[in-house]
Amino acid sequence: MASFGKYARLVFGAVAFFLIVATSMHSSSAQQVNPTASSVKEQQLLQELNRVQGRVSIPDQRSGVLEQPAGRDWREFRNVTLRWVGGIAILGMIAVMVIFYLTRGMVRLESGRSGRSIVRFNALERFVHWMTATCFIILAVSGLNITFGRPLLLPLIGFEVFSEWSQWAKYAHNYLSFPFTIGVVLIFLMWVGGNIPNRVDIDWLKRGGGMVGHDHPPAYRFNAGQKAIYWIVVIGGTAVAVTGYQLMFPFYLSGIEGMQLAQVVHSIVAVLFVAAMLAHIYIGTIGMEGAFEAMGTGTVDLNWAKEHHSLWLEEQKARTGPNDAQPQPAAAE
Amino acid sequence: MARMKFLCDADRCIECNACVTACKNEHEVPWGINRRRVVTINDGKPGERSISMACMHCTDAPCAAVCPVNCFYTTADGVVLHSKDLCIGCGYCFYACPFGAPQYPKVGNFGSRGKMDKCTFCAGGPEADGSKEEYEKYGANRLAEGKLPLCAEMCSTKSLLAGDGEIIAQIYKERVTKRGYGSGAWGWKTAYREAIES
User: Fold this and answer.
1) Which of residues 169-228 of A touch B (CB under 8 A)?
2) Are A299 and A121 in contact (CB under 8 A)?
3) C-alpha distances in Å from residue A26, one per residue of A12, A19, A63, B177
4) Which CATH number fits the domain that encloses residue B47?
5) Domain limits of chain A?
6) pLDDT tens digits for B131-164?
7) What CATH number belongs to A117-325?
8) pTM assigned to the model
């Protein structure tokens, strides 16, 4: 009986084995199914979103972006578009200034100096201006170095020196962004009152701001040109600060595509900003007689105020009384 | 001359992360930096695929093109390397890279970027091959020893292939022909402007 049981088990086992083999052979012959037919496909994902993203098991979840070919567009912008825009804006502005200086020359004080002066910017205003201006110049130079340094400066000074300089320029760019931002905020608060556009500006602009010829359209404390510079500083400064911090603190505000966009905004606004500030520096120094002392010593000649900011001068006289601004009796009144 | 490339056969990758671990260990990559990672797409859904990704050592590499200090160079084997002595940690290569390869150690205040670190195809850096300085900055230089990248050597399913582009493409093509399917060489079109027909 025991041998029969053994025999039965063997037969059963053999039948079961053949069944399994047969089934598996059958299934392998039926496996013409294509597993990739239902799988994710790279080209399809790229066409849908222009990026491929998934899940990673390492702590750095940002590395879940597998592929983002948009970097190629950014590369084109950074290496070609930006250099053209920046080059034309800055060199164009310099060219305009040179031509203007050669044709018009310095805008002179037509009635000469009166020898009497009036306070235009107090110590705090001048401090904020120069703090922001100093930061801006260093930020501009270090920023332009990132865009134009490799083709222009690197071949002249070599890899090691250029890297060393760029490293310090990067530190300066990062750290001076803080006082610069504070400066922009203070400039906004300090001078917003005098910089709201009004009807006087339209007349001032119609008369060309007195830039051509010898016209002196009236203006309050800030004329339309200064108001334009003011809003360029406030709006442009805010734009470069926000986008700059987005780049300085990667992934706090956005992913990689947001940082590419931030760099585009940051650099375009920055090169236009530099061009605008060149004009500001020109008119504040060699462009106009008696203008620099407003931010230098803080006082301007009374005749300068009369010619360029007549309405402001009247306001000041009305507020302080004639004798405060001018030691002599107010015969001119 | 060989043209070194990576190829991840997504139909074989089982997301074991051995390549990630091997890379970190071989080069003593610091905390917070992964030169290689495995990304799973459509995780848990039918048709999910895992792809191991690092620097692809692109043809006409975008990182090299945008670098403000020109710290990248391509070796005779087509491996894209960089000099940490020249790198200023600006982050531009990271914006341009299609594969998220450049990594930055967080140093100093505000977690600002330190010198960039990325996959070297186990080929070290500009320092002398196998030197202590090279190892400290870039990790092991296996290529100089006649070995291929450890991630691919370690791969348990031989999903990740590293080596001369023509040879690994040939291996992949043979696989596809034999098994009858293949989801393509991920990233090749972006990195090398060519795809492997399957």
Assistant:
1) 170, 174
2) no
3) 21, 10, 43, 22
4) 3.30.70.20
5) 117-325
6) 999 999 999 999 999 999 999 999 999 999 999 9
7) 1.20.950.20
8) 0.85
